[in-house]
Amino acid sequence: MKIRDDLKKKMKFSKDLLELRDREAKLVRMKRYDEAEKIKIKADLLEEFETNKLDAEMQAIIEKKEAKLRHTQQLALAALLKRI
């Protein structure tokens, strides 16, 4: 759906998550795998939380737009019925 794709492009992860992913990559390059694994676990949990939150927000936006569209269609239908 076009609306869903547009909203996914606009939704971004938090600065904290991006920093954790960056720190994880740096630790892997320094071959400090144990520390990188701990950071990865934290980042995965934060990413899952943020993904769920963004999905809920996106669903709310879609429902709101759908309700608005239904309302405008009902008004248009009522206007047409009134003319008949």
Give a quick summary of the entry:
The protein is 89% helix and 0% strand.
Task: Reconstruct the topology from this structure.
Blueprint: H1 2-10, H2 15-29, H3 33-83
Helix pairs in contact: 2-3
General description of the model:
- Helices cover 89% and strands 0% of the residues.
- It has 3 helices and no strands.
- The protein is rod-shaped and about 75 Å long.
- The protein starts with a helix and ends with a helix.
- The model has no long low-confidence stretch (mean pLDDT 90).
Number of helices: 3
Structural class: mainly alpha
Helix content class: over 70%
In one word, what is the shape?
rod-shaped
**What integer value in Å does the Rg equal?**
22 Å
Measured distance between first and last alpha carbons: 35 Å
Biggest sheet layout: none
Q: How many DSSP-defined strands?
A: 0
Given as residue ranges, the uncertain stretches (5+ residues, pLDDT < 50) are none
Order of helices and strands: HHH
What percent strand?
under 5%
Which descriptors would you attach to this protein?
84 residues; mainly alpha; 3 helices
